[in-house]
Amino acid sequence: MNTLQVISLSHENASLAYREALQLSAPEADLFMLSLKQRDLVTGLVVVTTCNRTEVYFESEGTPTTLIQEELLSFKKIENRAIYQKLFKNIRQSQDTFQYLLEVGIGLRSQVLGDRQIISQLKASYQQAHALQVTSPLLHRGFNPCSRPTNGCITRLLSGWEHLRWATPRWSGSLISSRAKHLPRRNC
Question: Which positions are catalytic?
């Protein structure tokens, strides 16, 4: 059975120097995604690369996150891999990956809590992968809400992610309320 997984190196677990070393330009991201897909390591994938994160969301039947990590480190010609391997966040279960993508998408995992820029970055990353024909059904389901226009309000973003509740049975309003209480109040 296929699962949606993610490897993440972000501001939450790595300093700027480590994040910069793994940043991928658009052409590099294309080459990396095509390489993994052509070698049948993944059913589909999306690479998200910003100044605060490099993440590889992928659908696979049996490819471990550690292999995708190793592929990324090799692609970027990182020599001291042991240090980097400790910095990655690996999520191996679909429901946990959907939950994480939700949190990233609504800005709960941003350096500036509630940052609205990330939704357009996720959308652009998905569109890039889709143009290369390297996406998959689970990735489409996870990234689809990113393509819907929003005015930046958390409530509208959450309504776009409503269909993901089936994938996140541990969904709780407490997650949102505990992190969203730090957001500035806005009239939406």
Answer: 51
Domains and CATH numbers, the chain: 3-180 (3.30.460.30)
**Structure confidence at residue 114 (pLDDT):** 75
The rounded distance, in Å, linking the Cα atoms of 36 and 44 is: 9
Cβ atoms of residues 176 and 158 within 8 Å: yes
The strand order across the sheet containing 89-91 reads: 44-49, 53-60, 3-10, 89-91
**What pLDDT does 87 receive?**
95
List CB contacts of 4: < 8 A, sequence separation 6 or more: 57, 58, 59, 94, 97, 98, 138, 139, 142
Q: Single out the residue of 107, 89, 91, 90 nearest to residue 161, CA to CA.
A: 107
Interstrand relation of 3-10 and 53-60 (parallel, antiparallel or unpaired): antiparallel
Query: How do residues 84-117 score in pLDDT, each as one tens digit?
Result: 999 999 999 999 999 999 999 888 898 887 778 8
